[in-house]
Amino acid sequence: MATVEIEVYDKQVNRLFSKLLNKTRNLRPVFRSIAEEVYNSVMENFRAESDPKGNKWRALAVRTIRERLYKHPGTPIHILHETGNLERSIHTKATNNYAMVGTSVEYSRAMQFGDANKRIPARPYLGVKNRDWENIKDIVKDYITR
To answer: What integer best gives the mean pLDDT of the chain?
Structure first.
């Protein structure tokens, strides 16, 4: 394999490379911004009662609606929001290596993916929307060029 070695003597280019190197040593700020972007998108999914692709969640069963009316009279009925615990449990984590948005609520997996044994349909609330990817690209570009 042939290689070419390039030495950069331009002070301005070297400053830019130094700036890039310094920025990439600590990626936590960019990952924190990415986590916040996805968190806001997940909260939007709860408000819209839809998955990250924009598909509406399956409606609640009549039996579930009746149970909620009995348990919580006068309270508005929303999908994935009987007590608000799931939505409130969504949190972010950002390190120098990754951004994470999730929950540790025991039943969250069944809500996200469904549970055939309990006849719970999948109602995905976690995920990255196409629009989010564009915003994430902008976050990274802004971070590098700041």
So the answer is: 90
